[in-house]
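Troubleshooting entry. The earlier prediction with 4'-deoxy-4'-aminopyridoxal-5'-phosphate gave an output that would not parse, so I re-checked the input for stray whitespace and re-submitted. Clean input:
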Amino acid sequence: MGKVYCNGEFVSGDQAMVPVTDHGFLYGDGVFEGIRSYKGRVFKLREHLKRLYQSAKSIHLDIGVSFEEMHEIVLETYRKNNMPDGYCRLVVSRGKGDLGLSPSNCLESSIFCIVDAISLFPENMYQQGLEVKTVSTRKNSVDSLNPRIKSLNYLNNILAKIEANQAGAMEAIMLNREGYITEGTADNIFIYSGRILKTPPLFAGVLEGITRNAILEIAVKLGMKVKEELFTLHDLYVADECFLTGTAAELISVVKADGRRIGNGVPGEVAKELLAHFRALTESDGSVIF
Ligand code: PMP
């Protein structure tokens, strides 16, 4: 790893350390973003930062630097690492404190920005599609830890990921308390059914994915019928198509869910069309690094 932004300075990756009393480390108390650049542009950086500041506000976390300063921190980290196509992890933790839960002794947030090569799903996954499994771990409910907050506490999703992997699937489908589909462990879900593109509404308990929003926008522009609507596993099993979206994966088709073949069992035409338009967008939309 190259240069990491660490509270106002750039240090080499192996010197980037977090104090043991940082509440991000002790309690998962903080927020983060996973961001990606394409050909020298940081895709939808302002949207990612908006979500970061909203997550922080929701958990009473004062980030301590302005939106525009943070925008520059991310771009400068890309520049320092000379990485036109890379993955960025921006982390804001509650900062150093004592061993108690209360953040009252955490006087200053800690900010880290890491840029590294992106690790992608293998290309054959895009051609063949993905198998998913529903897991018993339910999504955090919106009245406990709202999944719209991109917090450092990802244990809920990690447990779901382990469960899916142990059952032989790459990704999990997570339900909410009421049994409606929410999303994966690090991606949003869409189904295409009866010529309508559907994704769960935010109140179901999902992250407002930047990729999700971009896909919704593209679909509307293409004249597709789009609905943010609750749906069940049955709706997924009988859908014509299903796909997941996220910064790293972009858009990847689901061809099998809980042993049921979805649609024709191969990535669908709607998914392919949306992915092509999404990839075109990544080349023109974003904050210019160099
Ligand atoms: N849901 C969860 C739980 C996630 O962690 C992510 C990844 N940030 C997503 C959805 C997809 O969001 P985005 O498109 O902004 O990467």
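This one parsed fine. The chain has a mean pLDDT of 97.
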